[in-house]
Amino acid sequence: MDGRMKRGIIWFRNNLRLADNECITRALDECDEVLCVYILDSKIWDASGQSSRMGSIRAQFILESLRELEEEIKELGGSIEFIKGRAVDEIPRVMESFGAERCYAQKEDAWEETEQERLLANQINLILTGGKGIWEEADLPFALESLPAVFSSFRRKVEKKMQIRNLFPSPKSISCSWKTKTEVPTHTSLGFEECSKDERSVLDFRGGAREAKKWMNQWIWERDCLKEYKETRNGMVGADYSSKLSPWLSTGCISAVEVYWEIKKYEDERVSNDSTYWLFFELLWREFFRFVARRYGAQIFKRNGIKDSDEKMTLGDPKTFHRWKEGRTPNAFVNANMIELATTGWMSNRGRQNVASYLVHDLGQDWLAGARHFEEHLLDYDPCSNYGNWMYLGRVGNDPRPNRAFNLEKQAEFYDPDRSFRKLWLG
Questions:
Q1: How far is residue 397's CA from residue 377's CA, in Å, rounded to a whole number?
Q2: What are the structural domains, with CATH classification, of the chain?
Q3: At 403, is the pLDDT very low, low, confident or very high (cuts 50, 70, 90)?
Q4: Confidence (pLDDT) at 201
Q5: Full DSSP string of 325-373
Q6: What is the C-alpha to C-alpha distance for residues 370 and 394, in angstroms, rounded to an integer?
Q7: Cβ neighbour number for residue 108 with a 10 Å cutoff
């Protein structure tokens, strides 16, 4: 310390929590004062209909998460500003106003976010921390350029290492003399329509770290669902069939490492079986697509994906695509899933695979258009997993099989044998 008050900025991104947050831990260790900032990216938070990258349901979930974060930061003595704009413009401006020397932020994986990091690093002292997933790039037992092309190979290699970090402690106080000038905006002030909860939703999803912990405790411990997760994970109706943690994971209301250690605690105290492993297995898929996004950058958002191919990918027919997204296709199973998505922001993993396969293989439409539709509407949208999975089914990703097309009739018979799911959404 040189006797000067050291000030820093904590730039919250997809880490909307105080617990297990390396970014906060490091900032508070290295600075006397920190000001928290959240940027509502004007390219994403556009409710005008021009870009359609953020739907009302996801917006509501994030705003709920931000309100809880704001409350917790203020309870600890801190301040947080909410600014609509572009980070590359707003972060330097706030740092100058606050007299901050450093900006701390969680490193992201997708191309648009990493480009923001690169541009900001040219202007300010930007310190990037981990926290997005279980591992960081430096933890991998291979160079990123040597990332296995197939998930099974990736899993075998990373599981051999299997070293998961400990949790970072929650802060006890946050010192900040800055007087807050903004607050979490409302739906209407951002131009979104208020959305009501639909009673048919598999779960009453509410944003925030407290809600994340509450649901994880209910699903794992109170309902004791983890012990049968492998058998139930493809269910279509109800809260219990899968963990439903993905909306909170995608926003960072809870960390993947927190989920991992909760699994280990359950295994120690109740049972360790294929189902407990399978929830970790799903986290590994999330890790795989994170590193695919880092490895290939902007390629995952292009029509030919990561395949080295000159194949002309179809753009499809706009009318056919609109019937798909509105749930007006000849296939009732697809329609039910698409209506559930539009109404609640949720769709089961089984549903996502089937509607994507139907769009690409049965209707001959553009996988990229499907991925962009999911980006707008999914409550748990994450760029790496979303585009990674769509590439997979669109024949331009990491699938070792050349043509993964689902038999929709058989899928519906197997996963919705009594038609309860279709009846719920189609009447």
A1: 22
A2: 7-132 (3.40.50.620), 135-165+208-296 (1.25.40.80), 302-426 (1.10.579.10)
A3: confident
A4: 97
A5: HTT-SS-HHHHHHHHHHHHHS---HHHHHHHHHIIIIIS---HHHHHHH
A6: 10
A7: 22
